[in-house]
Amino acid sequence: MSKIAVIGTGYVGLTTGACFAHLGHDVVCADIDVGKIRSLQTGDVPIHEAGLEELVREGLESGRLSFVVDSADAVCGADFVYLCVPTPQSDGGSVDLKHLKAAAAEISAHIRHGAIVVNKSTVPVGSTLLVEEAMDRPDIAVVSNPEFLREGTAISDFLNPDRVVIGADEPTVADRVADLHSSIAAPVMITDPASAETAKYAANAFLATKLSFVNTIAAVCEAVGADVDDVLTAMGYDQRIGGEFLVPGPGWGGSCLPKDTRAIISMADDAGYDFSLMRGVLKANDEQFKRVVDKVESVVSLSGATVALFGLAFKAGTDDTRNSPALEIAGLLLDQGAKVRAHDPAVAAVGIDEITVLDDPYAAADGADVLVVVTEWDEFRLLDLDKIAEAMVSHHVVDARNIMDREALLSRGFTYQGVGRN
Ligand code: UDX
Fold first, then answer.
1. Which of 22, 44, 361, 420 could form a disulfide with 221 if both were Cys (CB 3.0 to 4.6 A apart)?
2. How does pLDDT run across 225-243, given as a tens digit for each residue?
3. What does the alpha-carbon distance between residue 28 and residue 30 come to, in Å, rounded to a whole number?
């Protein structure tokens, strides 16, 4: 078993640390956020991620997982140092690498000879070299090991991944990182750092493309009178296409897909390639947010209308509202003079004064003209529709996730618009 340091305790770092401790390694996680580290030391996990708190507590109890503020303390005894710091988007869509460089510079003097630095943050090609330069420690190897963790299922994605990708210049170094995953039954693919870094972007860019395609097919279905559920089911049987990630929605969002698609466009641009296909994918996504608003506008005049927005998280199973389609749609509604009353089972506040967030769905529906379902929470399928009808002043539903019971709504006098359905 190895000694592992993890720098950064966001979704990726915390999942990585807790899962490696679960696999039997000794893990120390570091973060500059003192409050967060104090919470984690007591087993309190500040993010909503299924199974994570249990794994953190298991790690604390076994003594295999600990949390410190100072990254020097974390790395001094480590055989492997995982960099899991944020890589936010900067102006123009490129990736801001300041946290990565700062973390590399900070740990440099404290890493022991022979340790391996593993870059798990999503970073453009060349970042492995950049970390090497920032550390200025020729005796330390730096490898790329991109994460493919979905929020909400990050633990099972880590412990049962489709693949582990390791990008390293030295095969022996790659083998040592691969060994850390020996108890995981997944193909381990070893390649060079540039290919590993590009593979991460390419995977997310493809997923975004698939989703924009699905959403535009839904628009075609509406135009020609076809049913998107049947169309996608028929498509998904084709093994070359596959049925996963084939569900239309309000547009895609989250902390990764929007950032990574822009980053790959920017990375290609810098290298002299115009990734116009990807620009189209982004444009289709912006149009999808507008299409949801158009559906609202088809039943009420937006100025002065009250919209009950069901869902704020970018998808079910998380409390994350970063780049959430719900907030994009709320912004468009507010711009047109609508009032927005929102409810989400996992989100209590969004920090936008104009959006009234209520912890009860029926209170959010109170006085509303239109109900818009944006996040696919199971809770919304189980709503008491009679109570919703009683709370609303007009009875219109725009179901941007196709999860509501259309017949039950129609029988109560609601109008119903889904995505790609007629
Ligand atoms: C994504 C990638 O899936 C993961 O591999 C990567 O490492 C991190 O980014 P995540 O951001 O957690 O994960 O979200 P994901 O589950 O991919 O969903 C992205 C968006 O697409 C969400 O807004 C979701 O609601 C939407 N979506 C997803 C659909 O609209 N339809 C689908 O069928 C699937």
1. 420
2. 999 999 999 999 999 999 9
3. 7
